[in-house]
Amino acid sequence: MRTKHTKLLEWIKQASDEAVSRTLTTRGYLRQIAYSNKTASPEVAAAIERETGGEVTRQQLRPNDWADIWPELKAFSKKSAA
Asked: Helix 42-51 to helix 27-34 angle, to the nearest 10 degrees?
């Protein structure tokens, strides 16, 4: 079952063209990511997290490999879970 990133879809609807361009991709590609048809590259995932103010995280966008790409986030995730 594919995950739908509802918060990303909401952000896409209200985001300015400038904000979308700062995600390093297009509004259409962001929709593909939101519906889990495409996987955000590490660069795009980080940009989405930044542009959404953390509402959509890198961990949500890359659940299978985020810890390999951003090992420094593992320590932060453990602190947040405590």
From this structure: 100
How does pLDDT run across 7-61, given as a tens digit for each residue? 999 999 999 999 999 999 999 999 999 999 999 999 999 999 999 999 999 999 9
Burial of 11: CB neighbours in 10 Å, binned 0-12, 13-18, 19+: buried
* Cβ contact 66:58 at 8 Å: yes
What domain range includes position 35? 6-81
pLDDT at 74 over 90: no
In angstroms, the CA 80 to CA 37 distance is 29
Q: Please tell me the total count of domains within the chain.
A: 1
Distances (CA, A) of 36 to 5, 7, 32, 46: 8, 13, 6, 17
